[in-house]
Amino acid sequence: MPTRLVGLLLLSTLVSSRLFDPYPIRVVRQTLVESNGQADGKGDDVNVDASAHHFKNADGTIGMNVTSTGNATSGSGNAGIDNTASGQVGNNHIGSTGNISASGPNSEVFSDIFGDIYGEAMAINTKQQGKSFGTGDTQVQATGNANLTKNGVVSPSASDKNIANAGATGSENSQAEVSSNQILTWDQLIAQLYGHASGSGKTNAQANVDLGAGSQSNGVEVNGLVSGVNQNGGQVKAEVEGKGSIDGSGHNLSGGMNGAANGTGNSQLVGATNLQSNRTGTNTTISAFGDAKSGGDGDSAITLNSNTSANSNNGVSGAIDMQNSANGGNKNMTVQNGLQVNDNKGGTLAIGYGEIKGNGTENSAANIGVNSQYDQNGHAQVNTTGTGSAVSNNRNSSLTMEGNAQITNPNGTKSGTATASGNVMGAYNNLTGTNQVVVGNDGANGNARMEANGGGVGNSAAETKTDLILKNGNETRTSSVSGSVKATGDSTIVKSVSEVSDNNGVQTMSNFQHAVSNSKGSSSASASNSGWLKRRKRAGGYWEGANLWMPAFNVSNYYPEV
User: Fold this and answer.
1) Helix (H) or strand (E) segment spanning residue 303
2) DSSP code of 554?
3) Which residues of 509-524 are buried (b: 16+ CB within 10 A; e: fewer)?
4) Which of 130, 166, 424, 561 has CB atoms 3.0–4.6 Å from 176's, for a disulfide?
5) Distance from C-alpha of 371 to C-alpha of 296, rounded to nearest angstrom
6) Does residue 395 have a pLDDT over 80?
7) Confidence at 32, pLDDT banded by 50, 70, 90
8) 413-424: per-residue pLDDT in tens?
9) What tens digit of pLDDT does each residue of 265-286 get?
10) 306-338 in b/e burial notation, b at 16+ Cβ within 10 A?
């Protein structure tokens, strides 16, 4: 349903003169005035309108204005509006496009352009809005531009390409929404962008946002994506929101992510956002990213929460938190997330990783958390935590845990690793472990603990081990303890606990092993342990260390897996 209006005016002024010539001379001055507006739409219900107007005032001012507007709705498919508007007064030109489309069960779109020239003053005002909602796939896409030209010179504030896209998918709920507004004058661009997408349903869900406005020398971008899946039809949720604005040379950006993946079997949740602000001589970015996986024979729940911002006056900040919980006999879980920043404090990369693997015959709980943060003062912190357990009857149990954190910035690299592992056998047995590593601008701290218990009728054995490696520039601090215990006889009990911690260089350790055996015939009980505390500094030439050692025992050699 097209609407098009075109206006053309040729203004002429006749001036007569009698200079050195007895016959009149006629001088003609001409000014070309032109205005064009067009709106095309599609959908179940479409309304479009266009107008073009030009004029000359009594004071001699020549001008024009043009409008192009439309809205469309659809309850069964696509809706779209394509707008163009342009005009000219002499050597002054304006031009703009504003196109928007939406697809999904229910769609609504609106687009409007107004442009005018009044003497030497020019301006363009554009607005696009759209949303789609329902179930399944929803999508909204808006594109446009705005340009002003004087005597062949393009306005330094011109908006080369305006983008506002959002999309989502979800079997139970899906919605996408965008808006794009901009006002362009010769010396200034004011633009506002918004995008939101969310999806939820069984098995999988996804949401994404893509926003952009301005130019390479004065532009903003906001991108975000969250996607989740559960192989056994579990509940999955994904949500992304983005905002961006330009007010002259000032920029304000924000991005947010939320997601969840719940159910049995394998699950995965990923998310990423990126904010970018380009101004002449300045490029500011902050990116947040995360990936978590869970596999096993029980229930699992993964969550994602993140917020980032970039402001010309207040700087850059952001945080991302991911949690991965499981309850089952066998578990294989990972979490990784981080932030990458480029601002006036220099480049910063903050990243954390956690992993838990557990095997047992009975359901038991485990959780990994990774939290990465960056504030407006340039301070970064990564906190990786883990809690895990494994329980079995008449079969061996095993549990391994690892946590890593690292920050790299202009001052160097700081990192930490905390690991804990254990194996145990016995008629009934269990393992419980914790680990944590925290890395910030001031250094790295951490702790790790593993406890193994076994017993009942027949032989029992256990081994536990914990390690810390903390690095602060050229300094490395290491803590490591391990222990093993075994008992043979008619009825046995074993216990092994290994624990290390390092808080700002204050290192502590604990290693406890205990075995009990009761038998009518022969029986035996033994325990052994070892530990290391080290501090090494490559630049400066000193080394400190302590070693406590007794022969270790490998439970897997003594009692093979049933």
Assistant:
1) strand 299-311
2) -
3) bebebbbbbeeeeebe
4) 166
5) 24
6) yes
7) confident
8) 999 999 999 999
9) 999 999 999 999 998 778 899 9
10) bbbbbbbeebbbbbbbbbbbbbbbbbbbbbbbb
